[in-house]
Structure to design on (385 residues):
């Protein structure tokens, strides 16, 4: 199968989940023997080596809303490659992959990782209505209608008129060959032997909830638990605020951005993976928790028990008390109490082993790509018929 993957607003290599997702899907499909061509913005360094064919095409001036201006280039590549299927990473202002698929007659899969429908009181929705003809809604719904398949973590972010047989609900995954419970060599950051090291990885958006972990560590210190240390990996708009909250706390470390290739070592050196999402801080999450959080899969692959708020969507990934611990986000001591449960090394090992086993069986990128390839085969066959 020849596949053209259009992700012009994602940088590869990268420091974020979107670019990592594109890289893993591309290499996973290539690893299954498919001829994979990817259009993505050049990132921090050279494109990954291997069987995937990479084309450095990004949105003009790095502005995602100008993605559609890449259409002539993407169409030209599509005519040269003659793909069986075009996969476009959905964006309201995108559509260049959709147009390329129509130009070549290829099957089209739309990869949706953000809401297609508007949440209540969305500024974009208000603007759309002011424009009378609602061009934004019409354009994104046109993308959906043109697609043979929509790939998404949850159908709750799609228009209700889309038939269920055209939707593949699928989680993201982890590279279980690289993220391992133990990796040789010197740990990439200092830690005391007897510390319980909890790690947060993220882009420090408000809804990532990093500040809640700092507050939980402070509460634990006040309760006499001096053995809890925290490591924060990543950068973003909430990092400064989070660091300010951490002032005066010893053994709370902010490491900044780390390349995805280095991440396995950083996780293997920790004891617990924390994902303290704050759904109230991001209005689109009122529709549904539509993410498939890369960090959780990678925590599990690294053998770390995970700690998250009790969010129904996350129960599809890990089970409370079996691979991790969930807590009530409305309970002020909830996150701190969850961490206390994992001070017991035996409990951590049991949950970590179970998490590694679960992500290997259900949520590896290989499993993800096998399901994708099967679905792509079906839509290609339907077009032929």
């Amino acid at each position: 199968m020849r596949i053209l993957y259009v992700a012009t607003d994602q940088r590869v290599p990268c420091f974020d989940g979107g670019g990592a997702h594109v890289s893993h899907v591309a290499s996973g499909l290539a690893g299954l023997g498919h001829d994979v061509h990817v259009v993505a913005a050049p990132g921090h360094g050279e494109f990954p080596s291997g069987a995937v064919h990479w084309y450095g095409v990004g949105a003009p001036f790095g502005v995602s809303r100008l993605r559609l201006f890449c259409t002539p280039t993407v169409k030209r590549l599509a005519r040269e490659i003659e793909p069986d299927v075009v996969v476009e990473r959905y964006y309201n202002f995108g559509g260049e992959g959709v147009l390329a698929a129509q130009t070549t007659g290829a099957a089209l899969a739309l990869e949706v990782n953000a809401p297609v429908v508007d949440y209540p009181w969305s500024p974009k929705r208000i603007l759309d209505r002011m424009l009378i003809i609602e061009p934004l809604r019409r354009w994104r719904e046109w993308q959906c209608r043109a697609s043979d398949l929509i790939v998404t973590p949850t159908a709750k972010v799609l228009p209700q008129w889309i038939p269920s047989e055209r939707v593949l609900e699928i989680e993201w995954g982890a590279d279980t060959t690289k993220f391992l419970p133990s990796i040789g060599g010197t740990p990439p950051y200092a830690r005391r032997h007897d510390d319980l090291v909890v790690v947060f990885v993220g882009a420090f958006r408000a809804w990532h909830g990093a500040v809640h972990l700092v507050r939980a560590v402070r509460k634990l210190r006040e309760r006499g638990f001096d053995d809890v240390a925290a490591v924060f990996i990543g950068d973003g708009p909430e990092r400064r605020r989070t660091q300010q909250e951490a002032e005066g706390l010893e053994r709370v470390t902010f490491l900044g951005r780390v390349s995805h290739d280095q991440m396995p070592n950083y996780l293997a050196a920790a004891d617990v993976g924390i994902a303290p999402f704050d759904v109230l801080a991001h209005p689109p999450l009122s529709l549904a928790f539509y993410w498939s959080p890369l960090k959780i899969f990678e925590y599990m692959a690294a053998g770390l028990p995970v700690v998250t708020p009790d969010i129904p969507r996350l129960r599809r990934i890990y089970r409370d008390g079996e691979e991790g611990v969930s807590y009530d986000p409305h309970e002020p001591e909830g996150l701190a109490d969850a961490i206390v449960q994992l001070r017991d090394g035996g409990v951590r090992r049991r949950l970590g082993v179970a998490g590694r086993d679960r992500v290997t069986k259900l949520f590896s990128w290989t499993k993800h790509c096998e399901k994708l390839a099967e679905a792509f085969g079906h839509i290609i066959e339907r077009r032929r018929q």
